[in-house]
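(Structure overview)
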Amino acid sequence: QVQPVESGGGLVQPGDSLRLSCAASGHTLSSYGVGWFRQAPGKEREFVAGSTWSENKAHYADTVLGRFTISRDNAKNTVYLQMDSLKPEDTAVYYCAATFSIVPVTDTDMYDFWGQGTQVTVSS
């Protein structure tokens, strides 16, 4: 089974950019759909962005559309989340997850393997 591992979180100011990485051990991420989720204190975990494995199609939550970009580097077995124009409301722990689904899915229950998360804080 695949084990996602996130990195790249940190403290940034509003308007800054940050790139998160999701590397994998065990199996290649190119065989899975991959999603990024986030969870802010006191809130439920929510879908941010996803990439299907079959056609590498990207899909996004409305709150990040136009600001965040998900991409894959299969040679490095890594999926990235480029986050631009960050806002304080983007502050959360960001999780990478893998799914067997071949269609775009946003429900946490549809994802089978989860990383431990990386903290992103946007504050002036």
